[in-house]
Amino acid sequence: MTNRVALVTGGNGGIGTEVCRYLAALGYKVVSTCMDAQKEDIAGWQESLQAEGYSVGWVECDVSSFDACANMAERVEAEFGPVDVLVNLAGITRDAFIHKLSKDDWDAVVNVNLNSAFNVTRQFIEGMRQRGFGRIVNISSVNGQTGQFGQSNYSAAKAGLHGFSMALAKEGARKGITVNTVSPGYIDTSMTAAIADEVKEQILAQVPAGRMGRPDEIARVVAFLVADESEYINGANIPVNGALFTSF
Predict the structure, then answer these.
(1) Concatenated DSSP letters for the chain?
(2) Which residue in 137, 140, 144, 195 is deepest, having the highest Cβ count within 10 Å?
(3) What are the strands of the beta sheet with 5-8, ordered from one edge?
(4) How far apart are CA 224 and CA 221, in angstroms?
(5) pLDDT of 78-123, one tens digit each?
(6) Local confidence band at 1 (pLDDT 50, 70, 90 cut-offs)
(7) How are beta strands 29-34 and 5-8 bridged, if at all?
(8) What is the pTM of this model?
(9) CATH domain 5-238 topology
């Protein structure tokens, strides 16, 4: 068991909730960010987890804003303690073919899905370096590896996350910090539930596993990567996609 503080951005989403459950069960002091606590019913989400036996804190923060992340970091560390584990999971989609994609939708996706990783990580990396320990996991996507129709913004941001991970892994390795990427395939969440049935059928036909993944299958990999014992796994990208995309 551990009592390390773990911050999960966007932890109240489908994958994020399962990550919070896993880490809380392992003894981490888990804190999630949310964008709008009232709109997202974060209090109800927290109570539901508490009823299951999981204690998870939360803090409101627009992770696309560097200044908001600086303020969030002060609040988290003042209330919960130094953050040793960071899971950059917050993400959105604004899909459109590029000839129809607005600049606002490009900027929104890149800011939330990629820039936020810098905005949040920058607040905690110095403390990790000073303490000689850190675990950072950035949640990318199979579409950051393969590209996808109508997702030039999303695919670019998710591919950028792994470039960020690789560079930061080299910078932090001698300071006891690991930085890895997890790239989920199509996971059964509210985001994929919004996909039209005929499109979903076409996607599943391409997945050798014949099904969508489950959020707990992502959470299990995150929990493995953030463990104290996983110190020699650094700069890696772990695909969890049912063999939809394979490489070495």
Answers:
(1) ----EEEETTTTSHHHHHHHHHHHHTT-EEEEEES-TTTTTHHHHHHHHHHTT--EEEEE--TT-HHHHHHHHHHHHHHT--EEEEEE---------TTT--HHHHHHHHIIIIIHHHHHHHHHHHHHHHHT-EEEEEE--HHHHH--TT-HHHHHHHHHHHHHHHHHHHHHGGGTEEEEEEEE-SBSSHHHHTS-HHHHHHHHHH-TTSS-B-HHHHHHHHHHHHSGGGTT--S-EEEESTTSS---
(2) 140
(3) 56-60, 29-34, 5-8, 83-88, 134-139, 177-184, 237-240
(4) 5
(5) 999 999 999 999 999 999 999 999 999 999 999 999 999 999 999 9
(6) low
(7) parallel
(8) 0.96
(9) Rossmann fold (3.40.50)
Tell me whether residue 101 is exposed, middle or buried, using C-beta atoms within 10 angstroms of its C-beta: 0 to 12, 13 to 18, 19 or more: middle
For 223-242, the pLDDT digits (tens) are: 999 999 999 999 999 999 99
Out of 22, 28, 154, 186, the active site residue is: 154
**Measured between alpha carbons, how far is 92 from 76 in angstroms, rounded to an integer?**
23
**153 and 110 Cβ atoms separated by less than 8 Å:** yes
Active site residue 154: yes
Domain edges within the chain: 5-238
C-alpha 86/C-alpha 78 separation (Å) is 16
